[in-house]
Design a protein that fits this description.
Blueprint (H helix, E strand, L loop, with lengths): L6 E5 L5 E4 L1 H7 L3 H4 L13 H16 L4 E8 L5 E12 L5 E10 L1 H23 L3 E6 L5 E4 L1 H7 L20 H14 L1 E10 L5 E12 L5 E9 L1 H22 L4 E5 L5 E4 L1 H7 L18 H17 L3 E9 L5 E12 L5 E10 L1 H51 L3 H33 L6 E4 H11 L1 H6 L3 E4 L6 E4 L1 H17 L8 E9 L2 E8 L6 H4 L20 H11 L3 E7 L3 E9 L3
Parallel strand pairs: 17-19
Antiparallel strand pairs: 1-2, 1-5, 3-4, 4-5, 6-7, 6-10, 8-9, 9-10, 11-12, 11-15, 13-14, 14-15, 16-18, 19-20, 20-22, 21-22
Helix pairs in contact: 10-11, 11-16, 12-14, 14-16
Amino acid sequence: FNSSYQFTGILDTEGTFLEINDTALKFSDLKQEDIINKKFWDAYWWPIPDMVKEGLKQVVAAAAQGEFMRSEIVVIDKNKQPIPVDFSLKPIYNEDGQVVSLLAEGRMIKEMVEARQKLKISEKKFRSLDELSPIAYILSDFETGEILDCNSSFENATAYGKEDLANLRYSDLVPDSSKHKLINFLKEVDLKGTYGPFEHKFRKKDGTTYPVLISGSLVGNKKGRKLLWSTAQDISEVRKKEKQIRDEQKLLKTLIDNLPLNVYIKDLESRKVLVNKAELNYCGFKDESEVLGKNDFDFYDKESALISREEDLSVINSLEPILGKETISVKKDGSLTRFMSSKIPLIGPDGKASGLIGISMDISDLKQKEEELRDLINVTSIQNKQLINFAHIVSHNLRSHTANFSMLLEFLVDEKDEKEQDNLIKMLTEASDNLLETLDNLNEVVAISTNVNLDKKPVNLNEKIVAAEKNLAAFLKKNNAKIINKIPDDTFIKVIPAYIDSILMNFITNSVKYKDDSRDPVIKLSVSKKTHYTVLSIEDNGLGIDLNKYGEKLFGMYKTFHDNSDARGIGLYITKNQVEAMNGKIMACSEVGKGTTFNIYFNDKN
């Protein structure tokens, strides 16, 4: 009795305490004499004695009549704190079956009440979440498929109401085309106790379907009934948005694939994560998988790749774009491409770069056209200067010849002496021959300047040199001249055939014509390769030319630099025009008393 953890007391049928255990005394901080022979309803531990006294009397009276009374009540402990108690009042009978006393018991249930209160709050929250959740909750009988309960989201999504649940089975929610999936997932949940999440379709009350993401678990109730809790999230909007995104991506991909530009996106490590068709073709691949995840070191030479990586890091770190920069990319096969490039940082929500967008336009053809235009402008400028110079020469020479003719004719008219007249006629004939020679020279210059569309053809250089030697054989032998030819037999140059004959004849004859009388003339021929040019070098040991004095006039018309009676000053002028007409050039180096070397640059292009 005293060792019980419960509050225990014995009352007579009138409600007077006969006994009370130590647990109750300790709780109330009272002694036996404070309680014994006192009325049950007069004990201090009732929170509001005046209000509960009559009720307690009725409870005692009912128990005295043989009723078992039990309820949860609140009492006051010794610190005046309310304590919830599970209270009972049980009648005690004698051998004759009469109630002779009452057993009062109380068990503190503070923790249980608090737990129950928390459970109520939790249940309330769950109910609220259940009703407010956009996800449908379904409780069904696992064996029969009968739907037992659902939340408002389920009702809103399917248009089924609570009144429909009695006749609704889980299988009714599944379209016929997905029945086999239902069977499989029921097997899975029976085996594992849970299923999902996976995508499925639900059928609405009107027969239409919509996509859902379902999952659930198997639970049991006290009666051993297997219940299935399922969640079904309507993903119609998600799928709609995904389709919209796919359509937009397809549209964007179609757009960038048809741009006449190379477009790519790189990550922070300069790996390509997106490329358009132009960039794919430039890299030399057909499938994106061959390019994505690779960087510039996989496609270009090391120097080009390093420059590109430095540009990427600059854009990523500074968040400043590079716009309209001319770049040169050299692929691993050595092919070179000029681009007009822009690199723009991709800035994320955190304000930092997550990569970059690159846009490049191949301007190789444009740069070539620019170079051709510059060459054309240069050629036009040179031709204009030559035309002005030519006009001055023509004007001067023809004026000189006509003045000479006029003077000789006047002398002839006035002269009476027949012998002197014959002499004047001879002088007129010489003047006429000189005029014809001048006209021939001028005509050849005009022909070179106007025949700009003559085709260049590949010719064997040594064959042309041999032909020139044969044509000059007597001239070379007379002057005891020697030609040393170091040019390989397989050397070809692209030239206008008629011009190369004239060029070789002019330079070889000049090398002999302007020889040093103290030594026999030696002419050395060699060839070398420069960028886009085959260079023919013609070296002699003749008189040499003072280039400091005559360098600017070296290729001028009618310019001579030695007291040679055969000098006319037209050969180098014509030769220079012929070489330039073939988009080539001539460079000279010379030392007086030692000789001259002419380097003739034949352009390898057409």
